[in-house]
Amino acid sequence: MRSAYSVETVRAAERELMARLPEGALMQRAAAGLAAACAQVLGRRAGRVYGSRVVLLVGSGDNGGDALFAGARLARRGAGVTAVLLSPDRVHGGGLAALRRAGGRDVSVAAGAPSGGAGGAGGEAARPGPVAGPDEAARLVRAADLVVDGIVGIGGRGGLREGAAPLAELAAASGAAVVAVDLPSGVEADTGEVRGPAVRADLTVTFGTHKPALLVDPARAHAGAVRLVDIGLDPWLPERPELEALQHADVARLLPRPGAESDKYRRGVVGIAAGSARYPGAAVLAVAGALRGGAGAVRYAGPAGRAVLARYPETLVSDGGPRRAGRVQAWVVGPGAGDDAETVAEVLAVADEARVPVLIDADGLRLADRDAVRSRTAPTLLTPHAGEAAALLGVDRAEVEAARLTAARELAERYRATVLLKGTTTLVASPRGDVPVRVNPTGTPWLATAGSGDVLSGLAGSLLAAGLSARDAASVGAYVHGLAGRRAAAGAPAAAHDVAEAVPEVWRDVTAPS
Ligand SMILES: NC(=O)C1=CN([C@@H]2O[C@H](COP(=O)(O)OP(=O)(O)OC[C@H]3O[C@@H](n4cnc5c(N)ncnc54)[C@H](OP(=O)(O)O)[C@@H]3O)[C@@H](O)[C@H]2O)[C@@H](O)CC1
Ligand SMILES: [K+]
Predict the structure, then answer these.
(1) Residues 300-318: what's their mean pLDDT?
(2) 92 and 230 housed in the same domain
């Protein structure tokens, strides 16, 4: 499991650890990891560290300190390192002194004498460096092989301020590799929101633990690849993170496996109430996902029975609606439902009586009565995309996309349901606020194709029927679905049924002994 902790938790853990270490030791660990990562990037980009050109963008806090100490290490290996200081009067003095000792240069984009700074070594650093105008800063960044973003880390608030923002834009336009220190500057560490200009990195080197912004879009897209440097923080982090992302081993453990005693009811029977005369394909695709999701049987109740049977003769089709469909251990309702509110209400009633979980997707989200969902005693899983979530919350789609974590949590609370908010970083929020939100690491833009959501609803519904909790069914379903999307696409467009067909291969891969 990969975990992400909030800034407040990281700060508390850092205080505990720092109290047990000599002053500055933690920053040296961070800088050593950062310098090693930068050296690797330079090796790939410029062939070697010696003779390469490195520009450090240095803000006024410890994030800038990390960049300066890492820059000193690179300068000692023969790189030409120039620090561009955003606030020379508040720069990390010890870091600047180290860089100067190692032969690095510094220029300031604002006038002011270095103060000695936080934890600073004063002395040498007190001499102000030359002031660079915007043209000189632009020239430096354009000529760099590597730009290190040490503008702000977990102490950053809001979009980049005046002075910092143009430098981030220069870095983006320069063609140099960009390595962000701890976080890409300008993103909100705890929420993954990006409300103003922010650095776009090729690699983010983060310290101690992931922060939510490194896992949640839109910030995640600014981070590039992420490398975690161990600085010894783990023993001081609490058990419960803010966010968690399942990895292969977690998913392998959670995927249902039939035993010698299994029959179809022990494996789980999933009921699919989907499709309409207008959208029969949604029914076929939801069934396609459900058949690959580990349940022992799939019952279909709806008007697209003929289309379903033509494609999947193993489906148990009933014409009498959900109430007469026979015993099921979980229901899926909503894909392609059009305006059929009656079926949605019937599924909720039948599932309440049988006390079985319900997954509500697509049209079903609009048609389901919120109070009926809130008062359920068995689990409910809602699977909206950003547009559907926005409609349920009464806000614009752009607002949901900008603040995905907040939107998922809010919906889970309003509906007292588990919410899977689809996107390239799909989120799974629980109605109980005291468990970490799950984030799916396997998403791919190739999955943004008609019908792919129907496949996911069948797949996750099948996992619910097999006995997984709503949270596990949602996050395991999203994980497998994401990998199936990648495999089906393999760099070229794939259709939703290709995604369903790729599921067994992904399942084998995930559960294969490593
Ligand atoms: N603690 C530790 O043990 C370790 C910490 N480590 C490192 O320290 C980092 C945290 O350092 P930090 O606390 O000094 O905060 P930091 O991210 O540098 O930013 C604060 C400065 O930025 C400024 N500023 C704020 N918003 C801004 C904006 N939008 N645009 C522009 N400027 C903005 C703000 O200005 P102010 O609001 O004070 O005027 C203040 O001066 C952490 O991410 C990691 O890299 C590692 O070495 C491992 C050990
Ligand atoms: K940064």
Answers:
(1) 96
(2) yes
Q: Which residues touch 458 (CB under 8 Å, ≥6 apart)?
A: 270, 272, 285, 286, 287, 288, 289, 290, 291, 293, 298, 332, 500
- Ligand whose nearest atom lies closest to the CA of 160: 1
Residue 303 clears pLDDT 90, i.e. is over it: yes
Phi, psi dihedrals of residue 272, rounded to the nearest 5°: -115, 115
Distances in Å between the alpha carbon of 365 and those of 7, 64, 274, 277, 404? Answer: 34, 47, 12, 19, 18
- Give dist(CA 318, CA 346) in Å, integer: 15
List the domain range (segments joined by +) for residue 234: 2-245
* Ligand 1 pocket, residues with Cβ under 6 angstroms: 14, 18, 26-27, 30, 59-64, 66, 151-158, 160-161, 164, 181-182, 207, 231
Q: What's the confidence (pLDDT) of residue 116?
A: 52
How far, in Å, CA of 420 to CA of 399, rounded? 17
Q: pTM of the predicted model, to two decimals?
A: 0.94
Counting DSSP H helices and E strands in the chain, the numbers are: 20, 18
Instruction: State pLDDT tens for residues 113-162.
Output: 675 544 443 344 557 788 888 788 899 999 999 999 999 999 998 889 98
What's the 124 CA to ligand 1 centre distance in angstroms?
23
The answer to whether residues 321 and 345 touch, using CB atoms and an 8 Å cutoff, is no
Residue whose CA is at the smallest distance from ligand 1 atom 13: 155
Most informative mutation of 154, 188, 199 for ligand 1 (most atoms within 8 A of CB): 154
> Is residue 145 within 8 Å of 42, Cβ to Cβ?
yes
CATH number, domain at 335?
Answer: 3.40.1190.20
Q: Are residues 267 and 239 in the same domain?
A: no
Distance 187 CA to ligand 1 centre (A): 13
Ligand lying closest to the C-alpha of residue 21: 1
pLDDT in tens, 475-490: 999 999 999 999 999 8
Binding residues for AMP: 422-426, 453
**Whether residues 266 and 283 fall in one domain:** yes
Sequence ranges of the binding site = 62-66, 149, 153-159, 182, 185, 282, 336, 385, 422-426, 453-454
Q: Is the pLDDT reported for residue 34 higher than 80?
A: yes
- ipTM metric: 0.98
